[in-house]
Amino acid sequence: MQTRPTLLALLLLAPLATLAGPVYKWTDADGVVHYSDQPQPGAEKVDIGTVQSLNMPVPKGSSAPAPKAEQKKPAPGLGYTEITVSSPPAGKTYIEEPVPVSLVLVPGLLPGHTITWYLNDSPLEETGDAFTLERLDRGAYTLYATITDPASGDSVSTKTVPFYVRQPSELAPHNGKH
User: Fold this and answer.
1) Is residue 140 situated within a structural domain?
2) Could you tell me the pTM of the whole model?
3) Which of 38, 78, 169, 174 has the most CB within a 10 Å radius?
4) 88 with 100: CB under 8 angstroms?
5) What domain count does the chain have?
6) Is the peptide bond before 107 cis (omega within 30 degrees of 0)?
7) Residue 14 in domain
8) Residue 61: is its pLDDT beyond 70?
């Protein structure tokens, strides 16, 4: 099958196309597809379109220039550049302690917008950007917030943050109850 080598050749030649100019394609008498930056008899010019560049990771100790800081784009329709659950941290385990919850909104909550918090996909009654979850049962939990503009119906949600709650065993000698 010629498709795979053809695709591979196009992918390999794509970055060169922006540097070397046009790419030409032809098939020889044996049915083998060839690519070149030089025109050949019977070759057709291949339009490979715009080439995207990739930002590859820089190895440690490299003296490559620092990347430009990305500008944060507003969430569609709501105007926030950042909406993140800052507490609890993802994966944190709480042992017999309240769980602090907080939200980072940049800019702050816009007039008319509302916050709805979800614990294990169930809405909470809390509507502020910071509060504490008291006395959660032992288990795994997920938390996220949704900001809604009731006037337009648009909304945006944070990433879901997992966290865990544990209580020490009654039988454990280190629980301080013996």
Assistant:
1) yes
2) 0.54
3) 78
4) yes
5) 2
6) yes
7) yes
8) no
Looking at this protein, which amino acid is placed at residue 8?
Answer: L
Strands 114-119 and 93-95: unpaired
Helix (H) / strand (E) element for 3: namely: helix 3-20
Distance CA 24, CA 42 (A): 10
Residue 70 lies in a domain: no
Question: What's the rounded Cα separation, in Å, for the pair 105 and 107?
Answer: 6
Q: Supply the range of the domain harboring residue 23.
A: 3-46
The residue that leads in pLDDT, 156 or 35, is 156
Q: Is the dihedral of CA 72, 76, 78, 83 positive or negative?
A: negative
DSSP state of 156: E
pLDDT per position as a tens digit, 68-117: 555 555 444 588 889 999 999 999 999 989 999 999 999 889 999 999 99
Report cis status (omega within 30 of 0) of the bond before 88: yes
Show the tokens assigned to 117: 């918090």
Residues whose CB is less than 8 angstroms from the CB of residue 85 and which lie 6 or more positions away in sequence, other chains included: 101, 102, 103, 104, 143, 144, 145, 158, 159, 161
Pairing mode, if any, of strands 93-95 and 122-123? Answer: unpaired
